[in-house]
User: What shape does this take?
Amino acid sequence: MTQLAMVELWQGDWAACRRTAASMQGTAEQVHGPYILAMSKTVSGYAMVASGEKEEGLELLRAAAAWLESTQIGLTLSWNQSCLAEALALCSRADEAKEHARRSLERAEERDLLGEVAAYRALGLAEACGRGTWSSAEAFFESALRAADRKGSARDAAVTRLRAATVAVRFGELESASRWIEGVAAQFAEMKMTSYLVEARAVAAPLAAIASSQN
Assistant: This one.
């Protein structure tokens, strides 16, 4: 069930994530499984943030990461930390996002690589809500893209390109945004990642309109 929840999270199916997380919580209570409970909090917390329930979602993510860190159960700690970091960055909590992204990357140095791509993405996103620059943000997104390529993850690469394009728009770097978002919507459509597809189209459409008006 934990693997199903993670797949649903990667897919961006937030409603399914929350249903599976609720089932995981029930299982955890029946078998007294704190690890399952922590994983359910990570999945449901990120899904809640993505669905607009930011504060409650962040609290669940923080609780999961804190418990896993305190118990030294490091099976997926880089992933739990990176989920928290990316959610914090999406909520414009730059300093806290950077802290958890760095913790995730420390785990990656110990060969716990599951959260590496998202951790770099979180650092890129944090640049846009802190005092960063497009140049520094893009460097983090390029690191995320290289990590995604090493994993052979088309999903991670597409999400990274979407986040980079979004940040480029915030910095007014429209040419860079167009370069990063190119082809991303088609990739999401092929992977049936509907929520990300909607986001990608929302970023790409005005950029295409601006480009068209300049021709």
